[in-house]
């Protein structure tokens, strides 16, 4: 098949998932055309079946807001016409689903039928899409998609709760390439971070308010009182400055390192002992799944779709949002006992295998066949 994928190119989970999907489809001999405004962060290396089409948004003194959606729709039309595209798969509803609707109408007027699949990822529904500024357009473009998918049962029910749509939503869970993340830890790298054999705790996110990153710090400080540890905070975003200020003003925070954006999570996760995800909401929690694939147990909240991924007391623990004392107690119970830690590590891998790339990508291929 010739598949066009539209996504955000940044470190956000939807862009990561879309890029990994495109790479997996190319491995299976499909031709994959990425359409976005910048090369996606995980789109590295050369692949003969992968093409990248940059959306250019020419500016003009009249525009206070350059019309990205118009440029995107025009690029979709161009790519479909010139590369014999069979379907458009857009990730994150805003503004990709409405731009795809526009492209589809333009192509229909030219006598070409192009099916559109929209994959909902999370904040496009639970935060941004719900806002009345966007809601009518998001509702309409979801309903007009040829197929609608959500990355968890929770996101599916949130969509029906928040939008008046009748369209069937198929749940296709996010996935991880377990073989890629399940690497042997590099001892020299581990020693560099934790020279005295301290435990390494990791958090990775886009530092938005919804992630409650300050709770990560609170959990860590409690753990570090009982178990000598280091905390690696990976990523960047709006909350980074306030977290930096919080860490600077705190005497006990010397063991916390903010690493900023990192592309090679598959190198960092294998040296980690525990992953922290304290979000107020996660439709899925792809970062937690990648950690589990690297045999890293997860301490998380029980928000959104996380209970569909994490089995409580088996490969990690979930606590109520904001209950950092409970999260710290669970973290200590895992890290404080080597046998327990090893068992949780083993279980994390076993759980991650259920979401392995090889089980999930065929579900997308089947859906593609159906809509075509
Ligand atoms: O919040 C993020 O990490 C980014 C956001 C996105 O759409 O780019 O992530 C959402 O999609 C991911 C991939 O499907 C999910 O794993 C995240 O749980 C989800 N984030 C939220 O729901 C807050």
Polypeptide structure, described:
With 372 residues, the protein is of the alpha/beta class. The chain has two domains: 190 residues, Glycogen Phosphorylase B (Rossmann fold, 3-Layer(aba) Sandwich), CATH 3.40.50; 178 residues, Rossmann fold, CATH 3.40.50.2000. 44% of the residues lie in helices and 17% in strands. It is built from 16 helices and 13 strands. The chain has a seven-stranded parallel beta sheet, sandwiched between helices. Strand 9, helix 10 and strand 10 form a beta-alpha-beta unit. Helix 3 packs across helix 5 and helix 9 crosses helix 14. The chain starts with a strand and ends with a helix. The model has no long low-confidence stretch (mean pLDDT 95). The structure holds ligand GMT. The site of ligand GMT has 20 residues, from helix 1.
List the helices and strands and how they pair.
Layout: E1 2-6, H1 13-27, E2 31-36, E3 50-54, H2 68-83, E4 87-91, H3 93-109, E5 116-120, H4 123-126, H5 135-144, E6 147-150, H6 153-162, E7 169-171, H7 178-181, H8 187-193, E8 199-204, H9 213-226, E9 229-234, H10 240-248, E10 256-260, H11 265-268, E11 274-277, H12 286-293, E12 298-301, H13 306-309, E13 316-319, H14 324-335, H15 338-353, H16 357-371
Helix pairs in contact: 2-3, 3-5, 9-14, 12-15
This protein binds ligand GMT.
